[in-house]
Each structure stands twice: as C-alpha cells, then as structure tokens.
Design a protein that fits this description.
The chain is an alpha/beta fold. It has ten helices and 14 strands. Strand 3 and strand 4 form a beta hairpin. Bound molecules: zinc ion. The site of zinc ion has 5 residues, from loops.
C-alpha cells in the first residue's frame, strides 16, 4: 500500500503521520531522535515512515505499539532492521507482544485456535514477526534513549492487551474508537472483550480534560470535546448491540452463536462475504455474548451437541 506521509503537528513536540493507520511521532529531548506510535501495515509503510522522518531530521530509535493487529505493527521488522543502525527499542503491551513475536497466533486465534485456512493469512491478519524489547504495563514509562518519560494507559478490549500512550499533552489511543462513518459502514466493530472495552472507554474519558488532543488509530486527531462525543457514539453502539442480542434471545428462545450472528447482521442490514470479515465477526459476537454472560443477562448450555445461548 503506497502512503504518502506528511509530518503533521498535534501539540508541543508531538506530531503524527496521518494515513490509513496513523503513526504517532514523539520527539526526544535532543530534538533528533524520536519514538513512533505503531508502524503501519507493511514493510513499505515502514520505509516511508523512516523516509518522511529522516527528511524532517528525525531518527527513529523507539517504537511504541498499541496492539498486535497487523496494521499497527506491520512496519516494525523493517524499521527495527534499518533505523538507527538497528538500535531500535520496541515496546508492546502484555499478550499483544506474544502475538507480535508469533504472528501466526492472530489467524490461529480467529480460527478458534486451530490451524487457520489460507485466506486468514492475508496481510491484514498476518504481519512479519517483530522483535520485542520491553513489555509495558499501565503507569509511567521512562524512555532513557529519548530522555523523556510518558504514561502507558490501559485500553484493553478492542485487543486483549491494547494500551494507549500519553506523551506530553497528547493521548494516542490505538483502536479504542472509530469514527461515526466507519461505524455506519461496518455496523459491528471488531472487539475481543466488550466488557473490558466499555471500561476502557470510561477510563479514557478521565483523560479528556487533562490533554490537548487525542489521536486515534484511523482518523484525524481529535479535540477533547470531539473525543468525548465520539466515545459516546462508540459506547452507544456497543450497548445497542448488547441490548439487541438480549431482545433477540428473549423473543426467539435459545440460539446458537451462529444464529445470533445472522440475527445481528439482519438487524443492522449488512452481510459478510469474505473469510476475513466472517472470522473477525464471529469472535466479536462471542465477545458480546461473553460480556452479557458476565453481566448475568444471558446463560449458556450445550443441548443436542450444540452450544445454545438464552436470555435470563
Ligand atoms: Zn486493531
């Protein structure tokens, strides 16, 4: 994928490279070295990121990954091998780092833990492996190679271990939230843990009045007011899907997860036609059912060799 990046200021010494996947840029104390937040989808993205930053007088010595989806770390291996004489420190959250070191875990996980079918080895689901130097945890994080410190923010849910990064007055939130037009287009957004995601939306909101800007993974930087409004839209959509599933089970009796998936597609008037789309939707339906199970709103049993969900 050819992306022409432009270094775009956000606030203070924090910038980003807007694109299909935004790349955060955090300049170090010496003004010459920088960290990037995520690295795009492909090797070519990695090369273009380095080229754009080199021409701005910046050398990448740090990558901070928000999560292990291929479009957020696909450039890691290229950048690690060719930037700063190969001395690039790569930081990633727990669990996510395992998927980045062993990328086959992504298609395997989507295919119920089994050997995946070939279409799931697409470049959106299967990136080159990345070395990992530091596994982060929420709280302050020193970056001695840049002479600065940042804060790691727990944003798990979209991916099992997703974390955001607060640098200066800018919060990078990975795929915590998507723009309203993307929700309108795709209807049900991939999510590994709905209960965890809803908690992360709440947690992220507590940062809104102490930051200058928020940078999501796939849409332009937001003001705190825009961020607050978009969190509400994302939250409402997840709650609507949860409520729909409960109402559907109440009206139709016990249903398999496949039947729930079909009902959700019919309710929002969309269909999935590719292996990628289907095997991203299936675990997302599981994530909603699992959230409802935690909330005590649905029950589960095996009947006639079929796993069935029912309302409580
Ligand atoms: Zn993602």
């Amino acid at each position: 994928m050819v992306v022409k990046y432009t270094l775009t200021p956000v606030h203070g010494s924090i910038s980003y490279l807007p694109g299909p996947q935004n790349i955060g840029v955090i300049v170090g104390a010496n003004d010459g070295d920088c960290a990037i937040v995520d690295s795009g989808l492909t090797k070519e993205n990695g090369k273009d990121i380095l080229k754009t930053l080199w021409s701005a007088g910046l050398s990448v010595n740090t990558i901070l990954n928000t999560h292990s989806h291929a479009d957020h770390f696909g450039g890691n291996a290229q950048i690690a091998a060719s930037s700063n004489g190969g001395a690039v420190r790569i930081y990633a959250p727990p669990v996510e780092e395992a998927f980045m070191r062993y990328p086959v875990l992504e298609p395997t996980g989507l295919f119920a833990g089994a050997a995946p079918i070939k279409p799931l080895y697409s470049h959106f689901l299967y990136a080159p492996p990345s070395p990992i130097d530091v596994v982060v945890s929420p709280g302050p994080l020193e970056l001695p190679q840049l002479g600065i410190s940042i804060e790691v923010v727990d944003l798990k849910g979209h991916a099992a271990g997703q974390m955001g990064y607060l640098a200066g007055d800018v919060l990078f939130v990975g795929d915590l939230l998507l723009p309203a037009q993307v929700i309108d287009k795709y209807k049900v957004l991939y999510c590994a843990g709905v209960a965890e995601h809803l908690a992360s939306l709440d947690r992220a909101l507590t940062y809104a009045d102490r930051v200058a800007a928020i940078v999501p993974g796939h849409s332009p930087a937001l003001t705190p007011a825009e961020f607050t409004a978009l969190v509400a839209i994302n939250r409402a959509h997840f709650l609507d899907t949860l409520d729909f599933i409960v109402a559907h089970l109440q009206a139709n009796g016990p249903q398999s997860s496949e039947a729930v998936l079909r009902a959700v597609c019919a309710h929002y008037d969309f269909s999935v036609t590719t292996a990628e789309a289907y095997y991203l939707l299936q675990p997302t339906i599981y994530a909603h059912l699992s959230c409802l199970h935690q909330q005590g709103r649905v029950g589960w049993q095996v009947t006639d060799n079929t796993a069935l969900w029912h309302s409580l």
